[in-house]
Each structure stands twice: as C-alpha cells, then as structure tokens.
Amino acid sequence: MLRGLPIVLIIWVLAYTHLTELADFSIALLHLERTSAFGEAVYFFCYEVPKVLLLLIGIVFIMGIIQTFFAPERTRALLAGRRLGIGNLMAASLGIVTPFCSCSAVPLFIGFVTAGVPLGVTFSFLISAPMVNEVALALLLGLFGWKVAVLYLGMGLIIAIVAGSIIGMLRMEQYLEDWVRAIHFGNVATQDYTNFIWSQRIAAGIKHVREIVGRVWLYVVIGVGLGAIIHGYVPEDFMAALMGRDVWWAVPMAVILGVPMYSNAAGIIPIVEALIGKGAALGTTLAFMMSVIALSAPELLILRKVLKWPLIATFVGVVATGILLVGYVFNWVL
Amino acid sequence: MKNVKILGTGCRNCQTTRNLVEEVAKAKGVIIELEKVEKIEDIMRYRILATPGVVIDGVVVHSGGIPERGTVERWFE
C-alpha cells in the first residue's frame, strides 16, 4: 500500500496540472464549442468536477492522517478544566482536526461536559467541528480560491470561539437535561492513541478518503452539474435583485432559509458559487452556507435530548447572530 | 456464544458496522447474539465519546467510525 503512494501522488499532480487540457479534450470529443451556452456549461462541468474531486481527495487524505493524532478522548483530556477564552480558542481549533460525525454530537457532548470540559468550551467545539470541515474547505478552495477558503475558516473559528464564550459566560448549566447532569464520568480509562506507526496513519488517510469521498462525490457531481446549468443559462445579474449586496434583508433571509436545509457542503457550495457569478453577494452566500452547515433542524432535535429549550434557543440565537454579522461584514467590506 | 452490542443512534455508520460484524462472525463460524442499543441514555452507560461503538461480552472494543475488517476479525479469533 505504501509503495503505491508515490505513483498515486504523481498521477494526482499530473491530473491537477492538466485540468484545462482535460476539459478542452472532453469538449472536442463531444464536438462542442465553448461559444454556445450548452458548450460553456459542459466545459465548466468537465473542468470543475475533476478539479474539485482531486482537491477533495487530497485534502481529505491529509486530514485523515492528521486526525490520527487527535482522538476525541485526547481532545477531551486537552480541554478538561480549561478556562473560558483560551479553552474556547483551543476547542474551536481542535474541532477542525478531531474526527467528528454529526451523529456522534450527543455522545461527544455528554462525554465532554461530564468529564469536566466547561459548557462554553464544549459548545465552541460543537460549533466549529461541523462548520469548519475538510469537505467545505476543499470545495471552497476548488471553486472560490484560497482567499475565500481562508476567510471561511477564520470566520468559522471566530463564530465558534465567541458563541462558545458567550454561552459559557451565561452559566447555563442548569439547562442541561437532568439525566445528563446525573452522569459522572470521573476518570475514564483512555487508550494510548499516540503509538500509531506511520503506515497505520497513511492507512487511516486512505480509509478516510474512501469513507468521505465515497459518501459525497455524487453530491459534488450533481452540485457542479446544477452550477454548470446556472453558469450557461441563467442571465447575468439575475441574482442581483434577490441576493445582491444592496438588499438588506437578503442576509437574514439566507440564514433563516438555511436552518431547515440539511445538506452537506458538497452539494451546496457549487450551486452557491454559480449564483455569485450571477450577481449574488459573497457575504449573503457565505451566511447561507454557514447556516445550512452549522444550524440544522435535525441536529437541533437530536440535541434536544440533552439540552433544555432555553439552552437550545440561546445556542441558535448566538450562532445565527454571528453568521448574520459575518454576512453583513463581508457584503460591506468586499 | 458471544454477546455483541452495537451502540449507535441509527446513523449509516452504525448500520454498516452492524452488517460488517454480522458478516465477519458468520464467515468465522462464530455464533453471536447481536443487540442494537439505540437509546442515548443506554449508549452513554458505556462511556463512549463517538458512535458507533461495539461491545463484546460487556467490554467496549471499539468506538467512533466503522472498524476495519481486520480488527473485526480479531474480535472473533
């Protein structure tokens, strides 16, 4: 497995540096011209799909390796008993590199809180982990470039840190469900996660690619396909009246629309990218993306098993306000 | 006979893990009694941080993500 890695790496680099040729070739093969709307849409599709999938594979692979250094148990040990502030900063950062699946949000939440991780610090982790994920970063990097990817990363971290700090300062521990407060983890026997050997870490990276890319590749293809149709057929400035930067109500609308939607970054980002080409403002679209990913109705229902309503309402309120501010600031600055 | 519990609130990874365990046990000729633990209060008794978790004869042998086939095979040696 390790011996094949350099070959895969060479193929990856060759493919990534020849994306234009690949798209030109596909267009020629189909006897299409880029001057027609259909030709342009097909060209867009043939260029973006391989590019985004290659980036996705690369970033997910690297993240799979990084995650072998940060088991949830280790992250919890790092965060237990941390003060507000530094604890929130650490929690938000660790949220990026700790393996996390949204179906584990509840066990993780309980495991953290009952083992002495402060509530506000736990929330910083729970906000950052799903929002700043490798799939979102890979897609933003592929479709928007590194500046927007870095902005998204920075803004996601800031929202997680500030929202967690506010929840921590409000001292809302009494709004945990009673059965959760009754659990006392005490000293949990932790496995030693540091003694991976490198071949195991690389194997973990490959497994991560198989799991994540295997799950989202179809969303990428469909998302880019819809994006390609928008690129080719929707008139310029179509979105300016609805999602342009001068429409003050567009940002709150984007956040509200995002809550009931439960899509992953892979499906939503390509469509959003196409809308920006038609006059939608970046801040509004970023707010929409963050809302879809960070605030989802099904996840809130799961959290209801461990949190009472006032705490859920505070969580949604604080995070939504953060996303709103990000949306407005981006529309205003850029 | 081994008692195997799959801990998880019913997400796709839990389902995949369950199928994998069933399949490997069958291939190894080990008779197992498979239980699904889906209530979050019951899952938390096993003190795991991430689902799916696997408990064999009362001992947590795995938590978080789908286990490797090789790992599952070792459980039934």
TrEMBL record, chain B:
Gene3D superfamilies linked: Glutaredoxin
InterPro entries referenced in this protein's UniProt entry, alphabetically:
Thioredoxin-like_fold, Thioredoxin-like_sf, THIRX-like_proc
Q: Which residues form the Thioredoxin-like fold domain?
A: 3-76
Catalytic residues identified in the record = 11 (nucleophile), 14 (nucleophile)
The alphabetical list of record keywords is: Disulfide bond, Redox-active center
Positions of disulphide bridges:
11-14
- Pfam families found in the cross-reference section: Thioredoxin_3
Signal peptide as annotated in the record: none
Protein name as annotated: Thioredoxin family protein
Q: Which organism is it from?
A: Chromatium okenii
- Lineage start: Bacteria, Pseudomonadati, Pseudomonadota, Gammaproteobacteria, Chromatiales
